[in-house]
């Protein structure tokens, strides 16, 4: 068993809600007592409905936010104070790909300039210190010859590839994908998911893959954690979670997925009736 790359131990995060004129707002618990481990080269899918705390968990895992209670450790060390030089060094190894790539890119700069800017910010000049030159990185994600373009000149899928290229330029060990394909067309989603899997096979990068779409999570994940109301209600190997979901919430999510064929739907319904008969 490899040493975990990322460990969340009894992590909670609460926010202060809006209060009235003479009273303080009540605390809103976004993440509640979460325990998770992610190993090098692994994809851990985090799935749940909107408002379940997935994105907050992603920010905690990436060091963008600090937990209210509990501990987050990356490569065996807790995250340094946010904004400190030590924190910036850690954050080079943890990158985030968000849902809307157009908001993550500077409209005034070319794609090459943005990849090079990320490298310059961390003192990288290519070669052994990074993933290579901006041109080589862009070619790796399928944007060869497009580096001189500006964000408004790229499609949605190309923009997400550019964001992935910028993350790869820092040779991260972990990429947190927060709804990274949910804004894309289905055909483009498949292309980006295949790209992420190819990069993982080539570079050994780990993913924390956050999505409300259980079908997408099933496609890319080695393990899955199901989140509801800020808590992890079920974890397991992706195949096990889909074949024999234990928690009622997980069962409801899987039941809502469209079946590949009428025969597959009948087989799924038969398994569900058998499970209910055992209760």
TrEMBL record:
Origin superkingdom: Bacteria
InterPro entries (alphabetical): AAA+_ATPase (IPR003593), ABC_transp_ATP-bind (IPR050319), ABC_transporter-like_ATP-bd (IPR003439), ABC_transporter-like_CS (IPR017871), P-loop_NTPase (IPR027417)
Keyword terms, alphabetized: ATP-binding, Nucleotide-binding, Transport
Stored Pfam families: ABC_tran (PF00005)
Keyword Coiled coil assigned: no
ABC transporter domain residues: 6-254
Identification of the protein by name: ABC transporter ATP-binding protein
Lineage: Bacteria, Pseudomonadati, Pseudomonadota, Alphaproteobacteria, Hyphomicrobiales
